[in-house]
Amino acid sequence: MENIPATGGIIVVPNHVSHFDPLVVGHYIYGAGRWPRFLGKASIWRVPVLGPFLRKVEQIPVERGSVEAVKSLDVLIDALHQGGVVVIYPEGTTTKDPELWPMRGKTGAARLALVTGAPVVPVANWGAERIFDPRTSRLSMRPRTPVTVVAGKPVDLSRWEGATPTRAVLDQMTDHIMIDVRDLLGELRGEQPPAALYERPARRAGAAGEA
Question: What positions does the domain Phospholipid/glycerol acyltransferase occupy (predicted)?
Answer without folding.
Answer: 10-128
